[in-house]
Amino acid sequence: MSLLKIVRFPSPFLRQPTQEVKVIDKQVRTLVEDMMETMCDVNGAGLAAIQVGSLHRIFIIEALAAGGERTESPKVFINPVLEDLSPETDVRDEGCLSFPGVFISVKRSLRLKVSALDLDGKPFSIDAEDFFARAIQHEHDHLINKLLYDHAGPIKRQMIKRKLDKMTDEEAMDLLRQHPES
Ligand code: NI
Q1: Count of CB atoms within 10 A of residue 89's CB?
Q2: pLDDT digits over 18-62, tens only?
Q3: Residue 24 Cα, ligand 1 centroid: separation in angstroms?
């Protein structure tokens, strides 16, 4: 396994169209293992493949955030589809590993259903709520090239740009390690 470099805003790569995973082969399994290691290294709650330089439609959510035990592996979603997003919403601050040190209030549905493939290519569906549902919506946004930046107002956008334009890799890692659960 190896740590992958996390792509930061404003890299144009985060706006590249993502692609359906056709075959879950060794390359895909290695990518997912590396994503897990990379997310774990910075205590992230979720990570999408596009954030580590792959256009596959894949994201992972940390086990505790996904309603499991801390010791379990992160939950893997391949070619995920969201349905039944509840009209009930709430607004909370969100972070993102591609936006070190940035937190933005985002309105999200409280409940949804997600269908995806697991690492064995087996389809599954989950009804998610609260933080899990929020994390799924955040990661799914990455697959449709929607970013935390897009949820921010004009003043906050300027602040984000200013902050991230000149951020070094070292500063980014320090910020990510200071703020777990981005
Ligand atoms: Ni994110």
Answers
A1: 13
A2: 999 999 999 999 999 999 999 999 989 999 999 999 999 999 999
A3: 23
| Structure token pair of residue 154 | 């004009």
Q: Is the peptide bond before 10 cis (omega within 30 degrees of 0)?
A: yes
The helix/strand/coil state of 138 is helix
Please identify which of the residues 69, 139, 170, 181 carries the catalytic annotation.
139
Q: Among this protein's residues, is 139 annotated catalytic?
A: yes
C-alpha–C-alpha distance, residues 47 and 66, integer Å: 13
- To which residue do tokens 């070190």 refer? 100
For residue 176, the CA-to-ligand 1 centroid distance in Å is 12
- Whole-structure pTM value: 0.95
Q: Give the C-alpha separation, 79 to 82, whole Å.
A: 10
Structure tokens at 76: 């893997």
Q: Which fold has domain 12-178?
A: Peptide Deformylase (3.90.45)
Tokens matching residue 132: 């899990």
Question: How far away, in angstroms, is 117 Cα from ligand 1 center?
Answer: 20
Among residues 42, 31, 35, 64, which one has the least CA distance to residue 177? 42
Rg (CA), the chain: 15
Domain limits, the chain? 12-178
